[in-house]
């Protein structure tokens, strides 16, 4: 009987081995797909990181431009009070020999060089000024980004 049992179990083993053929290949293909999806996710993450870092850089530069002109206006307090710095985004870059016109021309030129489609606007109301910078941030979250700051020129 032992002889019969050993002979009958042999075909069962061979049958199981034939049944498992190709399973290793499927496991390898599934592993390749999972790794490929992971690499694609990392590439997407890297792309978003670069895009958001660029957007943050532009926003930081815009805030520096706003505070730069605010300090310049504090240095020329009378020109700021008289409204010599007032301008809208659509206004042309001023030309002339006055201090406010020269300051605005330099400021607007630097904004145009550093920010894509960069523009600046200034509005005064008494001792309160609002300085705004607008630029194209189509690579970031919004197409047009505006950074504004409203401050008092002096403390009474």
From TrEMBL:
It comes from the Bacteria. Signal peptide: none annotated. Pfam families: N_methyl. The chain crosses the membrane at residues 21-43. Keywords: Membrane, Transmembrane, Transmembrane helix. InterPro entries: N_methyl_site (IPR012902), Pilus_4_PilV (IPR013362). NCBIfam families: IV_pilin_GFxxxE, type_IV_pilV. This is Type IV pilus modification protein PilV. It comes from Congregibacter litoralis KT71. The lineage of its organism: Bacteria, Pseudomonadati, Pseudomonadota, Gammaproteobacteria, Cellvibrionales.
């Amino acid at each position: 009987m032992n002889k019969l049992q050993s002979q009958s179990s042999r075909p069962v083993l061979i049958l199981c081995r034939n049944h498992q053929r190709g399973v290793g290949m499927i496991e390898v293909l599934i592993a390749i797909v999972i790794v490929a999806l992971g690499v694609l996710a990392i590439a997407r993450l890297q792309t978003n990181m670069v895009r958001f870092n660029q957007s943050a850089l532009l926003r930081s530069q815009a805030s520096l431009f706003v505070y730069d002109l605010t300090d310049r206006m504090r240095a020329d307090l009378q020109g700021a009070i008289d409204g010599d710095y007032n301008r809208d985004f659509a206004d042309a870059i001023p030309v002339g020999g006055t201090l406010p016109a020269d300051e605005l021309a330099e400021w607007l030129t630097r904004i145009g060089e550093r920010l894509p489609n960069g523009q600046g606007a200034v509005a005064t109301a008494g001792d309160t000024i609002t300085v705004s910078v607008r630029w194209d941030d189509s690579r970031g979250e919004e197409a047009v980004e505006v950074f504004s700051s409203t401050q008092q020129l002096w403390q009474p």
